[in-house]
Amino acid sequence: MIRASRKSLTVMVLAAGLCLAGGTVAAVNAKAVIAAREANFKTFGKSMKAINDSLKSDAPDLAAIASNAAAIRGLAPKVVTWFPKGTGPESGVKTEARAEIWTDGAGFAAAARRLEPEAAKLEALARAGDLTGVRAQVRVVGGTCKGCHDKFKAD
Amino acid sequence: MSETPTPVWDGPTRLFHWALVILVLVAWLTAEEQMTIHRGAGYALLGLLAFRVWWGLAGGSTARFGNFVRGPAAVRRYLAESRAGTAGEHAGHNPLGAISVLALLGLVALQVILGLFAIDEDGFEGGPLSDGIDFELARQIAEWHELTFRLLQGLVVLHLGAIVFYAVRRRQDLVRPMITGIRRFRGPVQGLVRVPSWRLAVGVVIALAVGFAASRGFRLG
Fold first, then answer.
1. CA-CA distance, B55 to A125, in Å (whole number)?
2. ipTM of this complex prediction, to 2 decimal places
3. Most B CBs within 10 Å: which of A41, A47, A51, A53, as the mutation test of the B interface?
4. pLDDT tens, A15-61?
5. What 3-state DSSP class applies to A72?
6. Dihedral sign of CA atoms B186, B187, B190, B194 in order
7. Does B138 sit within 8 Å of A52, measured CB to CB?
8. β-strand partners of B119
9. Helix (H) or strand (E) holding B82
């Protein structure tokens, strides 16, 4: 009897230990995922800034604008993969991702997927040398960032 | 109790004060949303601050920094006299209020200057000088721009608290004089000494020039 309960105690301790370890692993993962996606979003920001800086200058560099637009276009389809379950505010890791990303998964995916085609249009306009078109399309691309952020990003 | 209505704030100082209130409110309400208006408010604020510096050197007597900015000893003396109820009446900022004025002006200046370099998270909306620095630095500055605004909010709350304190505990209405320019004192007090209006014209030109230059990112020509 004593033996049995000691055994079950051992099992319980082991199980508790495993749970703790599992929790730690999940927390580390959430942290890594969040850090990686923040770095990715910074790449978007950098590319957008490079485009806008060039447009503000006296002689906008359309080739540079096209390559920055291409960088955004290339990364854009991956956005939806940067938000695995468990990497939201409930993870305990500091993140500006709002819970709506997961509660309204379809809405989030639709908003995030608007970026790629708009960035592709921007790239095409820049390659075609259409500065007026580029200026207008940059606002559309910026609007897709903001449109998604307003709903799905805190702050 | 005979009361002597005495001029304390000249028109430009009062106009500056209320323009500052309105522009800070506009900048606050448009932040992150109506960025064209937000930037415009920032340029106007920079022009307004330049005007205030000019007016602090060449404006009416109560607006002059040299007349109201005091050292720590004078502040301590004022605090002691104020508590004892022996602080004499005078037109203009008291030595403690002077610190508040400098802190508010300095913080608004810092706020606006940081805004010139700040950029939003999308790399999309930025100040006119954000194109000269890289994204990460501009983002860092944007975060400071938010932090200084929290500090500014704190100072404004303190400012309003002081107005309520003077109204309730000292029976002094500080708001009406900032509207009418006139304050009633119990006895005769040396009031505002005005300056000729060409100095106002110079101040307006300075304000417009600084505001316009800021809107161009100080790149003229």
1. 51
2. 0.80
3. A53
4. 555 444 444 555 568 999 999 999 999 999 999 999 999 999 999 99
5. helix
6. positive
7. no
8. B126
9. helix B72-84
